Amino acid sequence: MILIRVLIIAICSLYIIRSLVRIFLPMLFKSVINKAQEQARQQQQQYYQQQQPRPDGRIRVDYKPEGKKSSVPDSEGEFVDYEEIK
How far is CA 20 from CA 8, 17, 36, 56, 67, in A? Predict the structure, then answer.
């Protein structure tokens, strides 16, 4: 008799838990998705607020690396060998 009672309670508990999961799990997923969308929207707004409009025809350099000086002066340029074909 005790075994039947335990089985009935276990089956009823599992059925109730299954029903609750079917109801609350979609709500949980929906809230998680909404939070992720809101965070993405906020990041996008922050990105566009950081971007400053530039006047047309102007170039802005954010970083200029300090490079090594070349052994060839700028006035000489680059020389390319070629042969004339007749």
Answer: 18, 5, 24, 60, 66
Instruction: Tally DSSP H helices, then E strands, for the chain.
Output: 1, 0
Q: Can you give the residue ranges of every domain in the chain?
A: 26-53
What is the DSSP annotation of 52-74? PP--TT----S----PPPPSS-T
How does pLDDT run across 20-55, given as a tens digit for each residue? 999 999 999 999 999 999 999 999 988 887 776 666
Q: Please enumerate in sequence order all residues whose Cβ is within 8 A of that of 72, keeping only pairs 6 or more positions apart, or say none.
A: 78
